[in-house]
Structure formats: structure tokens, C-alpha cells
Amino acid sequence: MRRLNEDPFRQRVAIIGAGPAGLSALRELQKSSRSLRVAVIDSNPRIGGQFWRHQVGGPFPAQEFDARHHPSHSVEINWHLSSSVWQIERVDATFRIHIALDIGDVATTLEVEKIIIATGASERTLPFGNWSAPGVMSAGALQSLAKEYGVIPGKKIVIAGSGVFAMPVAKTIKKVAKDLGTRVEVSIIEAQSLFRWWRNTFAFLLNPSKIIEAIGFVMFMKGNDVKTLSKTIITEGKIDAGQIIGVEIARVKSDLRQDQIKKSLSADLIATSFGFIPDMTLASILGLERKFLHGDAVVFVDGNQRTSLDGVWAAGEITGIGGHELAISEGAIAARDLLKKGHRSRGSYFSTALLKWRRMRQQFFAAGLAKIYPVSKGWIESLDDSTIVCRCEEVRAGEIRESASELGADSARTAKLFTRAGMGLCQGRICQKNVKEIIDFMRGDVPNATDANRETVRPIGGVVTLGGLSD
Amino acid sequence: MNSFSFDGEGISFEPGDSVAAALIRSGKKSLRRTRFSGEERSIFCGIGQCFDCIVVVDGVANQRACLISATEGIKVEFQDGAG
Prior knowledge:
The complex is a heterodimer of chains A (471) and B (83).
Chain A: H1 2-5, E1 11-16, H2 20-31, E2 36-41, E3 75-80, E4 83-91, E5 94-101, E6 106-112, E7 114-117, E8 121-123, E9 136-138, H3 139-149, E10 156-161, H4 166-180, E11 185-190, H5 201-206, H6 208-223, E12 227-229, E13 232-240, E14 243-252, E15 258-266, E16 269-273, E17 276-278, H7 281-285, E18 290-293, E19 296-299, E20 312-314, H8 323-340, H9 349-372, H10 378-382, E21 388-390, E22 395-396, H11 397-405, H12 412-419, H13 432-443, H14 449-454, H15 466-470
Parallel strand pairs in A: 1-2, 1-7, 2-3, 7-20, 9-16, 10-11, 10-16, 11-12
Antiparallel strand pairs in A: 4-5, 5-6, 8-17, 13-14, 14-15, 18-19, 21-22
Chain B: E1 3-6, E2 9-12, H1 19-25, E3 32-33, E4 40-41, E5 54-57, E6 60-64, E7 75-77, E8 79-80
Parallel strand pairs in B: 1-7, 3-8
Antiparallel strand pairs in B: 1-2, 3-4, 5-6, 5-7
């Protein structure tokens, strides 16, 4: 055992991102008899990514993907948690992965031959009046507070936005509140019409388990008095004495253009979510070829999840938003191909074909969801000039519009140079897509493939202090 | 009982809490004030991406309260502007 671990010819693999895609890839690598040394890197202190967030000390929600409980003799795993990759260099046939630990104070470097990149996605939010005030948070933040920490931050919670994510969040809140013995009212404000689901019948027929899941959610919402207002959008958070006291809402068309008539609802906490954005930071540092899929810049991969760069595979949300089940299929396919490459295939063709069929079904479902819940450009027309778009640098919509109309900004990048939008601590993670859409809308531009390769270019992938670098 | 201080006030926390989770559980609405218009802010993304929940921890500014683990005796402060 000891000798095996020190084998200098052991192939070194890095999995970047320990969410469903990364852990699925890891599980597949563990199944092989190939001698591998696998570094698993994640910025969170716990594995699971966003989907398998769980309570500290609590059980991991998907035991079969928890490699810590499935030791393998041929695969040695090195966990690098609370670690963000801030740079990757290619040196001959190896990749040098530079990692900052914890909050950037300690830096280290790993050398590997192969990378599976599965950096996932972050939540998309759209600006509305007072969305930067305390008491307004992303639906993901609400989910994490409840699920990981057992904190229910309001008594009358409104989840406003668009997409399927509101349902599991509402369910978590109701369940956790019940466990805590507190009462909480939850309602959902959904921009699209629920009848749009009829457009997805084909995707449902390919994924019958989703029909059962959907029925389960509808029953839960009914049984727990979670009301949904559809074709409605939040226009403003109402504040009194620094406290959220309600939401102002308006009817919307499917292109998100608002009706002039507004209504108010009382609330003490607003959670908002308009879907997810693939986290392309490291993919762009690696220079992977990108493309647009359902309006997102994603990593271009072939049928085996290979990227444009030899030795790098991509899986999960960065190859297209599709949820954890699709991510699991993609991670497994990527790992199988990595194992196969340059070696005689040991995996059965039949099971790989089955995996690919499953991936195709799941991609159909993802495409269906993208059609049901499009984030169309109507939100830009309704956006008030005084609303903050870049939260970090406090840049308002009017300034961004002006950068295009008066100063000739033609991209999120030039708008940033004129207005500082996207230049703050978060480096545009929250506002860049919104700024880009505002500028494109002002100019009447339609995104093309070149844009996909220019989006989200950040020369440094994460927080690293000068002290950490000099060590 | 485990506790840390927030602007001198004792905040109790559960094992495994982030600083933000403990502060929100104890009813703190706002964690910082912005540099330019002095707006109050709190947790927004909850996963370390947005940097809106930044506070001063043991004298070091710009620490994301949603990522920092609550530990016994640390000194957390409301961040005013750049801190």
C-alpha cells in the first residue's frame, strides 16, 4: 500500500469542484483499477457543491457519492477544501494549479497531467428597487441559511423571480421552520406562466421521474399553503425604517415587460432568483473554447465531455445549466473517457452508451426548462435609472445606460472602464451578465460565438493576498 | 455557551455556524455600510461570491461573514465603508 502511494508514475488528476459533477467523476475514477492520484479541490469547507449543501456534522445527502466512505486501493484522494484555484498554467504535458487556501492567505501549487473541471454555477439575480437593502437576498442564500444553519431569517418570506429553484427553497423553509417549531409564511412570485409547462411535454415523457417530482412539489405547496403568483414580477422592495415591509409587484408578459399597474404585498424578507449562470472563471483562464447555450456562455465539449484543450474534461453546469442529475451523468462520462484515453478500454460499451442516452434525455429536459423560463430582455426596459446594478461599486442603471448612449461603451468590459460596474470586490460575478445585457440591448446587439469566448475573462480566479503569494 | 463579539456585543453561535448565520439568527439586520452612498448591507448570495456581507474580523477588513466560521472569542465589527 505504501509503495503504491509513492509510485512516481501514478497518473495525477485534478477534479476542480466537488459538487455533483465532480463527485460523480471521482466515483467513476474510484471504480477503475488504474493507479491514480486524484486531487479534489473545492472552495467550500465541505464537499457537495451547492446542490448537496448539508448541515455541519449532519449526514451527507448522497452517501453513494461520498468518496470518503468508499476507499479504493488504486486511487489515492487528496482533498483540498476551503481552497480556491486562482491560476492554472500549462507547462509541457502538465498543468500547474495554483491554489489559495481559506481566505487567500496561504498559497500552494499542484501539478497534474489531467483535469476534470466542474466549477458549477452561481445564481442569477436581476436588479429591482431596493434589492441591495438588508432583508433582500438570493434564494440560494436563503436555502443555505435554512439548510446548513437552521436559520429562518423572516416570518413572511417572498421568493421572487423565475425558474424551478423557488420550489425546493420554499420546501426547505417550510420543513426547517416545522423542525424549529416556528411559523413562517412563504409565497412565490413567478414571472412566467405556469401553463408554459405544456410546452415541455416531450421532455417530460423522456424523463418520467420528473413528472413524479413535479407532482410531489405541487402537492407539498398545496399542503403547506405556499401560494404562487405567476406572470408577476417584483418591481421594488418596500422599506420602512431600514426594514423590508413588503414587495411591490406588477404583471409581466413572457418577455418580462411590466404592466404599469403595481400592487403591494407585505413581507419581511425577499429572496430572489432568476436561474443560474455557469461559473466560467477557470474555464476562461484555461482558454477553453466556449459557445452559447440557452443564452449562457458555456464550455464547448464533445460527446465524451472533452474540451478544446487536450487533457481537460468539463462536466456539470459549466457545459450548460441542467441540474444535478445531468451533472452526475456528465461527470461519469468524463471520468470514463479519461480512464480510457491512451489505454485499452475496460469499461463496458453498453453501460457507457446507457449513460450517454441518459445524458441526452436530461439535456432535453434542461432545454425544455430554458424554454419555459427564459430571462428575456423586458426587464431592461422596466429598470429604473436610479436602481443599483453593480452592488459593489454602487453603479446605477442610468450610469450604465449613459456609458453606452453617451460614451460609446460597446461591451460589459468597456462599460466597466467608464462606470466601474464589475470592478469591485466580486469582480462582476453578480452584475456582469446584467451589464452585458443592458449594453447589448442599448446597441441592439445579438450575442455571437466570439462574445462567448470574451465573456467572464478574469485573469485571477479567486481571492489571494500578497502575503499568501510571497510565502 | 459559544460566543463571539459583534461591535462589543456577545453573539452566541451553534457549532458549525458561519459568522453571518450566527448574526442573522441573533437578529442582526445589517453587517456593513457602503463606501459611497453609505447604504446598509447584509448577506446576499450566501456562498462567498458577492462580497456584500463583508465585516472586520479581528481587525482585518473585507472578510466575508458567510464564509468565516464562527469561533470562540473572535472580534467581529460592522464594516463602515472600506473598513
